[in-house]
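Technical note accompanying the year-one report. For the benefit of new consortium partners, we illustrate the data format agreed upon in the data management plan: each record pairs a sequence with a structure-token string. No post-processing was applied to the example shown here.
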Amino acid sequence: MLGREAVPGRLRQLSMQFEVPHVSDWFLPPAFGSETEGRLRLLAAREEVTTDQILRTIGTEAPDDAWIVVQFRRLGEEGRRTLARRCATMRGACW
């Protein structure tokens, strides 16, 4: 696992290598399975990191890759809708 701080002390980016599971009894979305080629990006964000900072980091680093974002705050309904709209314009889908 490789990582770096995108915003020192507030936003950490990690890249993980893994074996893509091949299963037939459950569904794994291609964006997190076969399309990843065994590599996922993880973004861990502290509470004060804004949605704009997260999306800017993803857009700068690898906008077409699948990302797992862990944010240590609660988003209200409007924040979730905004995030979904912005994410959809970046990749065409938001997982």
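Partners are asked to follow this layout when depositing records. The radius of gyration is 14 Å.
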